[in-house]
Design brief:
Length: 631
Amino acid sequence: MLKKINDVLSGLPATIIAGFFLLLDLIPHLTEEFGGVPQKLFFLPFDPAWITVIISGIPLLYLAIWRIIYNPGIQKISSALLITIAMIAAIAIGDLFAAGEVAFIMAIGAILEDMTTNRAKKGLKKLISLAPTQGRRMKDGTEEMVPAVEIQKEDVLRVLPGEVVPADGVIIRGETSIDQSIMTGESMPADKCVGDTVYCGTINCFGAIDITATRVGEDSSLQKLIGMVQEAENKKAPMARIADKAASWLVPIALLIAVVAGFATKDIVRAVTVLVVFCPCALVLATPTAIMAAIGQATKHGVIIKSGEALEKMGKVDTVAFDKTGTLTYGKLEVSDIILSDSFSKEDAFLQLAASAELKSEHPLGKAIVIYAKEKNIKLSEPDTFKMYAGKGVLARIGEDEVFCGSERFLAEHGIVLQENMKADLVRLRMQGKASVLIAAGNVCIGIIALSDVLRPETEKIIERLHQMKTNAVLLTGDNKKTADYFAKKVGIREVRAELLPEEKVENIAKLQADGRTVCMIGDGVNDAPALKTANVGVAMGSMGSDIAVEAADIALMRDDISKIPYLKRLSNATVRTIQFSIGLSMCINLLAVTLSVLGLLNPTTGALVHNAGSCFVVLIAALLYDRKFE
């Protein structure tokens, strides 16, 4: 019951009423301040400031008592307690306007904080609103609408145009375009066909599709995203904790100065004024507001920051360690070179033979060759016979041809010898970090297909920007040394550590930290999770990265856009500067106001106005972080 009354009194409508009655009481006080005779309002039998004291003061008193009862140790002493003491002291000396003003300005500050926090949470609210409530489940050839909570893994679901995808899944029938903006921030819908993954909460724009549910309920990508944002809101940054502690020790200092000032000047009004102006409002309000505004700003850009602590540490990072596959590159092999022997000159015929031989292969290299041939609209033939040799290659019969696809060793085992120029080509391709598949027919090697991971086009520019920000870039990868060196040289990374096992990545990060570096690790795979946890700040590629990596990281990039790393550093630096400015401004205002109060130049009314107006100003500055441009 008390909580309900408190919630009503601290709400915006009640606070507006409190402000109206405080305004009614302001006119006679202004008259008095400027040397006139105060005129009481003839139509009210009591001082209107009493309404303000009741409406805005009761929630303040409730909060102070609640913290005394439930908070542990020194945290029982809070800013709410100091403001309550100041309010009661002002009432005791008959300055109802000062008592009402202190309570009212604090209520305004709390509402500003709520407004800013709610605005910062807009991304989360949008996520929650997109959580599907039902879906079309296909059963025995018919469809039925079922609540989303009843959808099970492996269920076949139908999603019509305009409907929300009810669970993560893989398309088994149909083609469409999906609006994935809530997950990735992309403005254009993504084209999807059979075999493609769709995510819970995204919107089907055009054609009807059938999907097989792969992750449902709390395991879905949308629910995990919501969980990460909620987790971020529940964690406090070190600066926020410092502010909480400062609010605790400022209370006894304020009481001591007030008592000394009262006894030294024999003026109780000065003592009360000291209490009024010493309230640590900016310390308490501005820090969490700045953190939440920054987290909200990042959410708009497809970056999920899971804690204020991670946000602060990001600004101190001087070394960024990158995984290669799936981070600097797309993690997807594509055909990069086709080299034909002197005895074979037709590329389409060569590709048709190689891709047909690999048609039944499950190996990533074989699959990549088949995809490449299909993209070239080359008609493939089903192999008459097919045999796979694990770790070596495949042997298939295509019509009259016996085709070998595999390594140099595989061909040598079958008596096929390479020409010298082809051996030179193999060496060159290896130096470029590319994988090679040799193709032989009729016991003669007829060509080489080279495949390479595709470098993200923005990578070189990002490394350059990090260097400009005096931030080192390090490559930590499990790939072989030649591949790692090739990619590192291409993007401008000078420090390379290759052929690392997961525990060796952790050891390398620990060594960097032991050298006094603050390390940010960026990765996407399960094997990156320990390194992400060990680093000062862990950043996961949230869209294509593994669940384990995302959960281990402090920050998730939902668009797999590593160009957000410089943005994160600028956002972190701006947030820390805003918090420092807020604390500094609060201290300066407090010091000046206390001095003026002891000298008798401020009374409770003017003191409350000066101090709390400054606190509201600090909150508004923090709120500006949400819309600031960093790119």
